[in-house]
Amino acid sequence: MEIEDVKYKKKRKRSTRFKVVLSIFIILLVVLIGVALYFIIDFSKIWGDLGFNEGDVTYDILEDENVEGLEEVDYISGDVQTIGKEDGILDILLIGVDSRSTSKFTGRSDVLMVLRIDTNTNEIKLASFMRDTLVQIEGHDKNRINTAYHFGSIELTNLTLESNFGITPDYYVVVNFYGMEDIINALGGVDIDVQSNEVKYVNGSVDELNSIDNDGKSAHISGSGMQRLNGRQAVAYMRIRKVGGDAARVKRQQTVLNELFKEAASIDLSQVPSMIGVLTDYVRTDIPLGEMVNIGTAVLKMDVSELQRFTYPDKYDIGNYKGMSIVQPANYEEEMDKLVNFLES
What we know:
The chain has helices spanning 5-8, 24-36, 147-165, 180-186, 199-212, 231-238, 245-265, 272-282, 289-300, 332-344, and strands at 89-97, 111-118, 123-129, 134-136, 142-144, 171-176, 190-194, 225-229, 283-285, 308-312, 316-321, 324-329. By secondary structure, it is an alpha+beta fold. It has one domain: LCP protein (Aminopeptidase). Strand 4 and strand 5 form a beta hairpin.
């Protein structure tokens, strides 16, 4: 029986870590087109090491669980379809982590997305994976998908996506979310239509963030409606879980992503130096500069306001798997078909 989001949001007390959208990828591309014209700016750090060390991996990483009332479930699986990819299509693995050290890009993936850029049809698609989705991870049995990056960095995450979903990413971008506030501020904020039932949670999260870090202390938002949010307010907006649960939180992330697309598309060259300073601290990628320029040039020709979005699983159940609160598709074959059709169509 499918469990509604309202039950999901009650299943456990969530940690206060930053859980925000991995929107910086397009920003990175657009900015680097400008940077390619001004090589006096040093941005080589973005190709730096992720800081993963197998000896540092811990296995006692589960948050305090409250699985009371959740049905014990078995692992659900089925035939994995290989998702096709023609010439002119690139799949970019987008990982978001929350590390307080700018030299570290390790830990569980708070956000995991695959961005598909199709230069044949001029389409951009974004597939998000719910972080508690139960999957098979090579060498680590069954676990939440967000642990694959913790256990084995990019390599194990790619292998997990291929073996469970038939997706083979071409490149990766990893963002340390500790800097997302600075990234949003560097672009001048985002326009968001805040709903009346979200206001108190945005302001509550702003207070919490202000108490953690007094630098750039932010004011409350004054009410609901369309408004310009600064970096801290936007991060607070994206952290909301108590209105609509985790699925609604993903949609808020995607909303901010869409708005950042628009901001990045209209970036002024005068903003490039400050953006590079932020990006080199908080972003790592393996995309070569020449490929970035090619992709970015193609993306600028596309209508980024028409970003297509899908969250896997679309229809899901929540259960107790060996003491973990997990997400599984309500119908495996149907959800896999939705994912394949979304990326291939």
